[in-house]
Amino acid sequence: AAAAAGEGRPFLGVCVGMQMLFDGSDESPDAAGLGVLPGRVSLLPDTVKRPQMQWNTVSWSSGAAMAEGQPDPCWMYFVHSYAAVPGDAADVAGVCDYGRPDVAAAVARRRLWATQFHPEKSSANGLKLLERFVSSCLP
To answer: Quick check: is 120 catalytic?
Structure first.
Protein backbone atom coordinates (compact mmCIF):
# COMPACT_ATOMS: atom_id res chain seq x y z
CA ALA A 1 0.00 0.00 0.00
CA ALA A 2 2.73 2.45 0.94
CA ALA A 3 4.67 1.78 -2.25
CA ALA A 4 1.57 1.98 -4.44
CA ALA A 5 0.48 5.27 -2.92
CA GLY A 6 3.98 6.71 -3.03
CA GLU A 7 4.31 5.87 -6.71
CA GLY A 8 0.90 7.30 -7.55
CA ARG A 9 -0.62 3.93 -8.44
CA PRO A 10 -4.35 3.46 -7.74
CA PHE A 11 -5.14 2.19 -4.26
CA LEU A 12 -8.51 1.58 -2.59
CA GLY A 13 -8.52 0.86 1.14
CA VAL A 14 -11.68 -0.30 2.91
CA CYS A 15 -12.29 -0.16 6.68
CA VAL A 16 -9.03 -1.34 8.30
CA GLY A 17 -7.50 -0.74 4.85
CA MET A 18 -8.13 2.95 5.49
CA GLN A 19 -6.94 2.85 9.09
CA MET A 20 -3.58 1.24 8.24
CA LEU A 21 -2.67 4.21 6.02
CA PHE A 22 -2.16 6.50 9.04
CA ASP A 23 0.80 6.88 11.41
CA GLY A 24 -0.61 4.63 14.12
CA SER A 25 -3.62 3.44 16.08
CA ASP A 26 -4.76 3.41 19.69
CA GLU A 27 -5.83 -0.18 19.01
CA SER A 28 -2.14 -1.22 18.85
CA PRO A 29 -0.19 1.71 20.34
CA ASP A 30 3.21 0.03 19.98
CA ALA A 31 2.76 -0.77 16.27
CA ALA A 32 3.40 1.82 13.59
CA GLY A 33 0.94 2.37 10.79
CA LEU A 34 2.10 2.73 7.19
CA GLY A 35 2.40 6.51 7.54
CA VAL A 36 1.08 7.15 4.03
CA LEU A 37 -1.26 9.78 5.48
CA PRO A 38 -0.56 11.84 8.61
CA GLY A 39 -2.82 11.18 11.58
CA ARG A 40 -3.86 8.53 14.08
CA VAL A 41 -6.71 6.11 14.55
CA SER A 42 -8.65 6.49 17.81
CA LEU A 43 -11.38 4.57 19.61
CA LEU A 44 -14.87 5.96 18.98
CA PRO A 45 -16.23 7.91 21.99
CA ASP A 46 -17.78 6.13 24.99
CA THR A 47 -21.02 8.00 24.27
CA VAL A 48 -21.84 5.78 21.27
CA LYS A 49 -22.34 2.05 20.80
CA ARG A 50 -19.22 0.26 19.60
CA PRO A 51 -18.89 -1.07 17.07
CA GLN A 52 -20.90 1.23 14.87
CA MET A 53 -22.68 -1.45 12.86
CA GLN A 54 -25.27 0.38 10.82
CA TRP A 55 -26.13 2.57 7.89
CA ASN A 56 -25.02 6.18 8.33
CA THR A 57 -24.87 9.22 6.10
CA VAL A 58 -21.63 10.47 4.57
CA SER A 59 -21.35 14.18 3.81
CA TRP A 60 -18.85 14.69 1.00
CA SER A 61 -16.10 17.29 0.89
CA SER A 62 -16.34 19.76 -1.96
CA GLY A 63 -14.62 18.43 -5.07
CA ALA A 64 -14.06 14.89 -3.74
CA ALA A 65 -13.60 12.71 -6.84
CA MET A 66 -15.11 9.65 -5.15
CA ALA A 67 -18.30 11.64 -4.52
CA GLU A 68 -19.01 12.26 -8.20
CA GLY A 69 -22.49 10.99 -9.02
CA GLN A 70 -23.31 10.39 -5.34
CA PRO A 71 -26.12 12.00 -3.36
CA ASP A 72 -24.93 14.35 -0.61
CA PRO A 73 -25.44 13.21 2.06
CA CYS A 74 -25.12 9.60 0.99
CA TRP A 75 -26.08 6.44 2.91
CA MET A 76 -23.24 3.93 3.41
CA TYR A 77 -22.81 0.88 5.66
CA PHE A 78 -20.30 1.02 8.54
CA VAL A 79 -18.80 -1.61 10.87
CA HIS A 80 -16.03 -0.19 13.09
CA SER A 81 -14.98 0.74 16.63
CA TYR A 82 -12.02 2.94 15.67
CA ALA A 83 -11.88 5.97 13.41
CA ALA A 84 -9.07 7.91 11.77
CA VAL A 85 -8.27 11.45 12.85
CA PRO A 86 -6.39 12.72 9.78
CA GLY A 87 -3.55 15.16 10.36
CA ASP A 88 -4.26 16.96 7.07
CA ALA A 89 -7.85 18.16 6.56
CA ALA A 90 -7.22 18.22 2.80
CA ASP A 91 -7.15 14.39 2.84
CA VAL A 92 -10.73 14.14 4.14
CA ALA A 93 -13.16 13.28 1.33
CA GLY A 94 -16.22 12.66 3.49
CA VAL A 95 -17.40 12.65 7.11
CA CYS A 96 -20.16 11.07 9.14
CA ASP A 97 -21.66 11.94 12.52
CA TYR A 98 -21.12 9.22 15.12
CA GLY A 99 -20.21 10.50 18.57
CA ARG A 100 -18.79 13.60 16.93
CA PRO A 101 -19.84 15.38 13.72
CA ASP A 102 -16.55 15.00 11.88
CA VAL A 103 -15.70 11.29 11.89
CA ALA A 104 -13.56 10.68 8.78
CA ALA A 105 -15.67 8.39 6.60
CA ALA A 106 -13.45 8.66 3.52
CA VAL A 107 -10.02 10.03 2.64
CA ALA A 108 -8.31 10.61 -0.67
CA ARG A 109 -5.01 11.87 -1.99
CA ARG A 110 -4.28 11.73 -5.71
CA ARG A 111 -5.06 8.14 -6.78
CA LEU A 112 -5.35 6.82 -3.23
CA TRP A 113 -8.93 6.43 -2.03
CA ALA A 114 -9.96 4.89 1.29
CA THR A 115 -13.25 4.48 3.10
CA GLN A 116 -14.15 3.65 6.70
CA PHE A 117 -17.49 2.35 5.42
CA HIS A 118 -17.93 -0.78 3.33
CA PRO A 119 -18.83 0.13 -0.27
CA GLU A 120 -19.26 -3.57 -1.09
CA LYS A 121 -22.12 -3.69 1.46
CA SER A 122 -23.58 -0.26 0.64
CA SER A 123 -26.00 -1.17 -2.15
CA ALA A 124 -26.26 1.16 -5.16
CA ASN A 125 -24.25 3.99 -3.56
CA GLY A 126 -21.36 1.65 -2.78
CA LEU A 127 -21.44 0.13 -6.25
CA LYS A 128 -21.37 3.62 -7.75
CA LEU A 129 -18.26 4.45 -5.70
CA LEU A 130 -16.52 1.23 -6.75
CA GLU A 131 -17.36 1.87 -10.40
CA ARG A 132 -16.03 5.42 -10.05
CA PHE A 133 -12.77 4.09 -8.58
CA VAL A 134 -12.31 1.57 -11.40
CA SER A 135 -13.05 4.29 -13.98
CA SER A 136 -10.45 6.55 -12.35
CA CYS A 137 -7.84 3.80 -12.84
CA LEU A 138 -8.32 3.59 -16.60
CA PRO A 139 -5.98 5.51 -18.92
So the answer is: yes
CA atoms within 13 A on the CB side of 113: 21
**Residue 93: alpha-carbon gap to chain centroid:** 8
In the annotation, is 15 catalytic?
A: yes
Pick the catalytic residue: 80, 118, 131, 137? 118
Catalytic residue flag (residue 7): no
Catalytic, out of 27, 120, 131, 137: 120
Rounded to two decimals, what is the model's pTM?
0.94
**Which tens digits make up the pLDDT trace of 24-79?**
999 999 999 999 999 999 999 999 999 999 999 999 999 999 999 999 999 999 99
| 77-118 pLDDT per residue, tens | 999 999 999 999 999 999 999 999 999 999 999 899 999 999
Amino acid present at 58:
V
Does domain 2-137 sit in CATH 2.120.10.30?
no
Catalytic residue among 15, 74, 80, 96: 15
Distances (CA, A) of 37 to 14, 23, 77, 85, 113: 15, 7, 23, 10, 11
